[in-house]
Amino acid sequence: MNLKYDKFSKSSILGFAKKLEGKSLEEVCDKEVLVHNYAGKGNFGQVLEKFYFLYEPNSDAKADFEEAGLELKSSPLKRLKNNHYRAKERLVLNIINYEEVVHQTFETSALWKKNAHLLLVFYLHEKEKNILEYRIKFVDEWSFPALDLEIIKQDWQTIQNKILQGKAHELSEGDTFYLGAVTKGSKGGNPRRQPYAKELAKQRAYSLKQGYVNHIIASISNEPSLYGKLIPRLEHEQKLSIEAVVLSKFSYFYEKSIEEILESFSLQMNQKSKNFYANLTKAILGIALNKEIEEFEKANIVVKTVRLKANNLPKEDISFPVFSYEAIVDENWEDSQIKETIEQKFFFVFFQFEGQQLILKKVKFWNMPYLDIQEVQKVWKQTQSLVKNGNIVKLIKKDRQGKERRYTNFPSKKFNHVAHIRPHARNAKDTFPLPVQDKVTQAKEYTKHCFWLNNSYVRESIYEEKSV
DNA sequence: GCATGATCATGC
DNA sequence: GCATGATCATGC
Question: Distance between the two ends of chain A, CA-based, in angstroms?
């Protein structure tokens, strides 16, 4: 077949690819061929390879354009209300071969061999359209900047280490910063052998985290940078990790009160303001208050501030976004909202009350261990079952003012030591519809609830737990 | 003093 | 108006 590009030439391939910008697949592919060969099957990437670049989709270890050293990746965008584009999801790369990765170095790894240079095609995903109609927005090549590559190497080694330790089945996306190990295959199926343990492990692929893909998009679409860098440049031969840099900046202020920290920056901030702790974190890290912390955004790190009482118990439990009753009954655990949420990497900032003052005690990068994730699964499962059966309300009591209080069957702190379900709403009338009417109250809607991390769990498993 | 239900406050 | 982080209130 005659190709319209020179497969030995990077610039020729890129030039041909650039013609996609502003177009949809049905506009750029040969209509006759599409009509006869495209049966509505295959995803965007497969159609792009087959009907535009005219080669058969493969799962080779080699890059798609082997001779030019380019790997083609397409990925969906979503449009925000302010018309900016963001990644709709993470960018999935090749499958992790547990048996082989333990014999590789980063430089000889299957990941690096295939994905060192990417040819990226970003298209706007719109619900009502099919894949032939999606509008292609950005096309460009991508090579990893040296600073990012350093973090990605460390991530790759983190993943390899876990497999070397016989813990492939305990891999989680929260283990790493930019390069994740995402489950691949429906319902986390297709379990695979690992070399150093008998437990089967879910099939996983390397992926670039959604935040990292956002950074790529901002970079190739020439958006003004919203980011401030934590690690501005590589220091000679020093291999700096995000963790080490952040810990060194914070530890300088350990045992200092919030007032003392603010004084040292000559900063006046409203402590009641919603973003006070976010701003304090930026100040300590040396990031301008109007910028986002680049490394945190790229790694999808969630910052949580916790205030401890004298006995180290957090004053409050930690909440997550509310869930929809209608959505949770249809979820599989593997693609549930709460699993996605708790598998992220967190950055905890711990303060402790000393009288009226809050003292900075320590900070910690953390992601939930495998066994605890399984505990959250129990809470999720119980919740799903209660909603499915219309079994939410246990009883209704009147308090001294004669006001009704409803007690639910939702999993409480006693049910599970990791997480529980509690209301999270404007007030009791702030509700979501129920897929099944409640048996006791006949209600068709119920106060919004969410998952909470037990404060006792935060004390024992995050604050007091020694870092490994 | 804790567990659980309920609500507030801020920022977009 | 809503999402999110934070906090209050009641009863045991």
Answer: 56
